[in-house]
Amino acid sequence: QVQLAESGGGSVESGGSLTLSCTDSGSRVCMGWFRQFPGKEREGLAIHYAGAGVVYYAPSLKDRIRATREIGKNTLSLQISSLKPEDTAMYYCAADFAPDLRSCHAKGTSADFRYWGQGTQVAVSS
Question: Is residue 47's pLDDT more than 90?
Answer without folding.
Answer: yes
